[in-house]
Amino acid sequence: MEFINHVYMNVPYCKNLFDSLKIKPDDxxxxxxxxxxxFLTKDLIRENLEMLKxxxxxxxxxxxxxxSTGSPLIFHLGKRRISADIAAKMRAxxxxxxxxxxxxxxxxxxxxxxSRQDILRNLRDKLFKTKLLSAFDMSEEKIYEYVxxxxxYKPKHIFGYPSSIYLLAKFARQNNIKLHDIGVKVIFCTAxxxxxxxxxxxxxxxxxxVANGYxxxxxxxxxxxxxxxxxxxxxxxxxxxxxxxxxxxxxxGYSGEIVITHLDSHDFPFIRYKTGDVGALxxxxxxxxxxxxxxxxxxxxxxxxxxTPDGKIMHGLSLVYVLRELEGIKEFKIxxxxxxxxxxxxxKDSVFKTENETLIRDGFKKRIGTNIKIVFNYLPKIKAESxxxxxxxxxxxxxxxx
Length: 402
Description:
There is one protein chain. The protein is an alpha/beta fold and 402 residues long. It folds into 2 domains: 79-302, ANL, N-terminal domain (Rossmann fold); 308-395, ANL, C-terminal domain (GMP Synthetase, Chain A, domain 3), CATH 3.30.300. The chain is built from 11 helices and 19 strands. The protein has helices at residues 2-10, 12-21, 42-47, 79-94, 111-115, 119-128, 140-153, 162-174, 196-206, 317-324, 356-368; strands at residues 61-64, 74-77, 104-108, 130-134, 157-160, 186-189, 210-216, 220-225, 231-233, 238-243, 256-262, 273-282, 294-301, 305-307, 313-315, 329-338, 341-348, 373-378, 393-395. Helix 8 (162-174) packs across helix 9 and helix 10 runs antiparallel to helix 11 (356-368). The longest helix is centred in the N-terminal third of the chain and has 16 residues, at 79-94. The chain is globular and about 65 Å long. The chain starts with a helix and ends in a 7-residue tail after the last strand.
């Protein structure tokens, strides 16, 4: 592998790692040989930030994750990596009839992007006809402003957090603002789990298909949904492994932690990087005819799962539906502090009924068990994560994948 040879020769961390394991670049002949290397974790990146830089790298761009699962992860991106990620995104939008130069609205919450109001970024946005809207402020006043901008700008493509786009669609519906007639061809949701109810409302309000994208600033653009509904992996640049909580590889169809190797991360390598996300590979072939492999059952971050008092792992979506079915709840967030202790933050409206608390308790007990404690907090607003993302469920207890 050219990539492996490059990082061995030029990245101090990789050379030291290979030498300590007594392996050479020639020992890697296919992607299955990657399991000769240990996993790269967020803690290892923090501990070896400078050693992970290629000695041949220049013009590295400092980047970071949003820190939605703790402290942000700082890392660096080289030109080749950035170009590969942009190409992956552009190819995916072309599947839906959107091309370079078509007007685009991006609803994002990255502190890096939102602070770089420089000539270079303004030129880039003008060239690609991209307008950036901040996901940090989603107050009703700001949402009204965003909806007005979208109507005036008439984007062919909207890209951003599903929770933010969902709030825009919900506001437009409640205020009888039309968005179905502006010519949007596709709405790509990424960086959070896309829930069915979000997809349905966004599709209905914009009268445009909603596609899922999976990836991150650290992992890159890993997979995108095609018009036939398959999540195609960017296999030219990214190798995906699925492993159990002990690090053993899992066959197609089995859910486990998603581990990626980005083959264009020469300047700051991501090799067998543990994403903290859960998903599964598929052996199916898509009716669209694309030969790219398929990633399925992208179930969210490990912290989107709860651990029941008897040790079972359960996706938080099962609890989300308990609250979603009740009237009078505008917003909510479920926080698991202990296996038997949950805090539920709720923003209620005028039709909220006090018996909702009993219904929520009964719903949780039916799914988790009877020996649980639930604390209700009623708030005027629920803040998004520091990244601008919104998460319905957060578990603060140790997870087997962590």
